Structures are given as structure tokens and as C-alpha cells.
Amino acid sequence: xxxxxxxxxxxxxxxxxxxxxxxxxxxxxxxxxxxxxxxxxxxxxxxxxxxxxxxxxxxxxxxxxxxxxxxxxxxxxxxxxxxxxxxxxxxxxxxxxxxxxxxxxxxxxxxxxxxxxxxxxxxxxxxxxxxxxxxxxxxxxxxxxxxxxxxxxxxxxxxxxxxxxxxxxxxxxxxxxxxxxxxxxxxxxxxxxxxxxxxxxxxxxxxxxxxxxxxxxxxxxxxxxxxxxxxxxxxxxxxxxxxxxxxxxxxxxxxxxxxxxxxxxxxxxxxxxxxxxxxxxxxxxxxxxxxxxxxxxxxxx
Length: 301
Fold this sequence. Notes:
Blueprint: E1 9-10, E2 13-16, E3 19-24, E4 27-32, E5 38-41, H1 47-62, H2 66-80, H3 85-88, H4 95-98, E6 100-102, E7 114-116, H5 117-122, E8 133-137, E9 143-148, H6 164-167, E10 174-175, H7 176-195, H8 202-212, E11 222-225, E12 235-238, H9 243-255, E13 262-264, E14 271-273, H10 284-300
Parallel strand pairs: 1-12
Antiparallel strand pairs: 2-5, 3-4, 4-10, 6-7, 8-9, 11-12, 13-14
Helix pairs in contact: 1-2, 1-7, 7-8
């Protein structure tokens, strides 16, 4: 997909170079390690890899292969960082200034749909660190200041609301179950789109259609960015509120592209990427095995 849209997409995200998982209150959280270093990168430089990796996590979860799902999630965050659920989930923006958060019904992060911003932020600070997130409030409970102790504060070089300082800090954490749920949901939508045209009956098509309609990302904002030189073409700079929303966009662009580069293997069902439009299998082994099955089926006829 990156090849097909070269020069048209520009965004950024931050990741740390090492993460760990901690069990807190009978839940597992993933967080940057104490001495990890922050790295800034453009997710669109790795769009196909990101899609394949998150979809394969979802495939493992759907197969109930939790051991491989966890292994692949840890590899995913090492390469790309956490999803940024703190800024993805709220229905309102700039939550620190508003001092209140509105959440969609049935979300996994909180059993409430409205809560104070400081309580919401605390849900992502379960893993205690030397690095502290300081929230100062007035008597009305409004947040006067949110600050993060950091060797290098990524927020200093970007134009984002204060809550992003938490997302990009070492103190930040996300629950393993949240990531597993997102990956599984995205995989099931991917599977439904890939198999929709092959559905033999109305019930199956309806089931696939219901899954596909679950994909409904919101709050995608962008602006046109001019190049440094006069001859440079303008590009779209995406103002994603999270890596999760960037992935939603990558997924939508891939699934609606005439040059789809992330596909589902016709033999094993594994997501894979290929610039070859005619590629149908994730590996020579799957292609050969599929040909063997086809040959056996013809011989039986």
C-alpha cells in the first residue's frame, strides 16, 4: 500500500525500543521498560507490515492460540509501539482542557461512559515507574496542569493536546485484553471482506455484512502540507489521534484499493503482503499444497 500511495501520506508516532508485561490486579498490562529509549517514526513507512502483524495477532486470538497471540503482540509493540487507546477512545477531544471524558457504550477500558479526565488518564498509568505523571487540579476538579517527567518530552516537538504527553511517556500502559480484542475484531472484518464474494448462501453473506459494518472509525483529520521546494507536490498530513486510528486508515485503504497488497492466503487463511496482484498464497508451500488438493479433487471426479 505504501508503494501505491508514495508521497501522499505523512504522519508520525512514537515507540520505545523495549517493552515488558506486568500483572496488576489480575490483569496484564504492557508498558515501556524503565530505561527504554523513545523513537519517532512514520507508520506509513511500514503500513503493510503493520497490517499483516496486527491481523496475524487477531488470527491467533480467534483460533484461541493465546500463547502465540501474546508472543506476537509483544513483537508488535516492540516494532511499532502501543496503540494509543487513551487518545483513540474518547468521543470528545482535548480532554485535559475539558476535564471530562465521554466514552462509547460497551468499551473495554471503563464500565462508565462519562468520567473525570484525571480518573480516565489514571486507567493508563497502572504500571508504577520512576517517571511520574503529575496532575494538578483546582477545587472544582478541573485539571490545571498535566506534566510528565522525561529525559526527552516528545510533546515538545509536536502540536498536540496535553494528554498525548501521557501516551508518549514511559509511565503509559495498555491492557493486553484491549489489544487482543482490537486485533481479533479487525481480523474478523478482514476475513469477512476477503470471503464475502465466496459466500454460498444468504445467511453467510448477512453474517459477513454485519461484521464489515462493525468497522466504523471516526475522528480522522488531515491537512495539506506543501513541500520545501516549489516543485515538490503537496501531500496529505494525517493528524491521527493514535496508532490505532492510523491502522484503521491503512486497513480501509488496503481493502478498497485496486492494488490490494495485504491479502488472505487462499490455502491457510494467513494474512500476508505482496506487491504481486495475482498472488493468492502466503508461501510456496501453501501454493503447492493447494495444487495437490486441487489435483486430488479432479482425480475423484
